């Protein structure tokens, strides 16, 4: 005689295990697809939890170091460890989900036996085999899943490191042209000391494409934000900030030098920082979610339509910049965009004394100062307000090199200056 009471008691946990296994499987497969397959900025609770679990202890350890170099040596592990731990978590979740499936539909055996069979199949060890047809099918799926996950990650790594190398190539080149760490006045100074003013225009032009590349890759693959430069004195945030400062200085201090490329890099560089800033804010706040699909965001309110003054920029160029900015933030979370706008409306934290010191370095290098410094400072402050808030926020969040004109850090270290080329000028050359 069948013991229906015992059957009901056994059926409940197996049914729950089957449903939990299905939930974990969907959660894991969507995380995997969003991360390594879909070329789009899609969020995942699994990815966010893994990232937090890796970077939180590393940052805690980094704060115990007494020097920036010591702190950087710890933080350099963040990006690579996130990738490795992500793979382990995916395999672990698949292991558990398949084990719950086997336990849920199996005719016998406890949960431990089901998990052993899941591991045997997922890692293609083959030391446990199922007898039922349904379990055999699950074994086949599990046996295919393990190699597929590893193969996807192997294919994903060249994409990540190719983008990383492309980013760091220009950062390393700027280290020679603009110092380590990069500084806007030093970038201009070294170029004019070598009597190659045309290379400054070329730098502005090339970094326009660089900023677009970084914006695309770092929004699509956020783990790149955690991948630090091989040289601790370098950072992509500080390098971009130096190029933007150089462009702002040229527009504020001169009348006769070319302006088109300087205006262009200000537009592209500022937008790259804005979009990445909003993306980082979005990943640190709870949002309404559509299960297994992604986050739902209300459309951003339109920005003010008035045209403001800016150094050396025509009203038509400002209008294009504003229209492009509205397009860039459309559909992004309103709260993050509002914070961005509020931050950009605050006066810059860079002081007039710091500005004057930078101008003095330019004078020594032979750079033409054509405008009144009071007017130039006002114009420079207007231009810098467009990107200082986002650059400082990202530099603080990523704990990059404490550079001149680079803003504060959570863990305070002394500012590290590049070697100024003007210090090696002879008195009769100054």
Question: What distinguishing features does this structure have?
Answer:
about 425 residues, mainly alpha, 2 domains, two-stranded antiparallel sheet, about 0% strand
Protein topology:
Layout (H helix, E strand, L loop, with lengths): L3 H33 L8 H18 L5 H8 L2 H28 L5 H12 L10 H46 L5 H10 L4 H23 L15 H18 L6 H23 L6 E2 L3 E2 L19 H15 L4 H12 L6 H13 L8 H12 L3 H11 L32
Antiparallel strand pairs: 1-2
Care to describe what's here?
This protein is mostly helical and 430 residues long. It contains 15 helices and two strands. The N and C termini lie far apart (105 Å).
Compose a concise summary of this entry.
The chain has 430 residues and is mainly α.
- Unreliable residue runs: 285-307
Q: Whole-number average pLDDT?
A: 85
Distance linking N and C termini: 105 Å
**CA-based gyration radius:** 27 Å
Shape: elongated
Give the count of helical stretches. 15
- Structural class, from secondary structure content? mainly alpha
The oligomeric state is single chain
Give the total of beta strands.
2
Overall structural domain count = 2
- H/E element order: HHHHHHHHHHEEHHHHH
Major sheet description: 2 strands, antiparallel
Helix content: 55-70%
Order of strands across the main sheet: 1-2
Into which percentage range does the β-strand content fall?
A: under 5%
């Amino acid at each position: 005689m069948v013991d229906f009471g015992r059957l009901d008691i056994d059926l409940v946990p197996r049914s729950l295990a089957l449903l939990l296994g299905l939930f974990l499987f969907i959660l894991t497969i969507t995380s995997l697809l969003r991360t390594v397959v879909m070329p789009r900025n899609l969020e995942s609770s699994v990815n966010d939890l893994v990232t937090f679990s890796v970077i939180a202890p590393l940052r805690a350890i980094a704060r115990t170091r007494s020097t920036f170099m010591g702190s950087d040596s710890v933080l350099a592990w963040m990006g690579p460890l996130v990738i490795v731990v992500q793979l382990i978590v995916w395999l672990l979740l698949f292991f558990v989900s398949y084990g719950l499936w086997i336990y849920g539909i199996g005719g016998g055996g406890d949960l431990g036996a089901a998990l052993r069979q899941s591991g045997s199949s997922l890692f293609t060890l083959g030391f446990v085999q199922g007898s039922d047809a349904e379990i055999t099918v699950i074994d086949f799926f599990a046996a295919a899943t393990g190699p597929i996950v590893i193969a996807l990650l192997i294919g994903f790594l060249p994409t990540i490191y190719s983008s990383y190398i492309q980013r760091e190539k220009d950062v390393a080149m700027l280290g020679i042209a603009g110092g380590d760490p990069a500084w806007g006045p030093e970038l201009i100074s070294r170029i004019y000391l070598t009597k190659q003013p045309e290379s400054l225009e070329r730098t502005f032009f090339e970094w326009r494409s660089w900023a677009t590349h970084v914006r695309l890759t770092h929004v699509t693959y956020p783990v790149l934000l955690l991948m630090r430069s091989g040289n601790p004195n370098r950072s992509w945030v500080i390098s971009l900030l130096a190029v933007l400062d150089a462009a702002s200085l040229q527009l504020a201090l001169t009348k006769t030098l070319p302006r088109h490329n300087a205006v262009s890099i200000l537009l592209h560089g500022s937008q790259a920082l804005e979009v990445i800033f909003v993306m980082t804010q979005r990943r640190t706040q709870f949002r309404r979610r559509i299960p297994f699909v992604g986050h739902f965001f209300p459309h951003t309110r339109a920005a003010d339509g008035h045209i403001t003054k800016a150094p050396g920029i025509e009203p038509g160029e400002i209008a294009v910049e504003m229209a492009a900015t509205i397009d860039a933030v459309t559909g992004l979370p309103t709260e993050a965009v509002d914070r961005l706008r509020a931050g950009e409306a605050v006066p810059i934290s860079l002081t007039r004394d710091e500005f004057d010191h930078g101008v003095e370095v330019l004078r020594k290098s032979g750079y033409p100062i054509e405008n009144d410094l009071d007017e130039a400072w006002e114009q420079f402050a207007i231009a810098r307000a467009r990107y200082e808030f986002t650059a400082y926020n990202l530099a603080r969040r990523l704990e990059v090199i404490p550079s001149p004109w680079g803003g504060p850090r959570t863990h305070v270290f002394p500012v590290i200056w590049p070697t100024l080329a003007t210090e090696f000028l002879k008195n009769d050359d100054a």
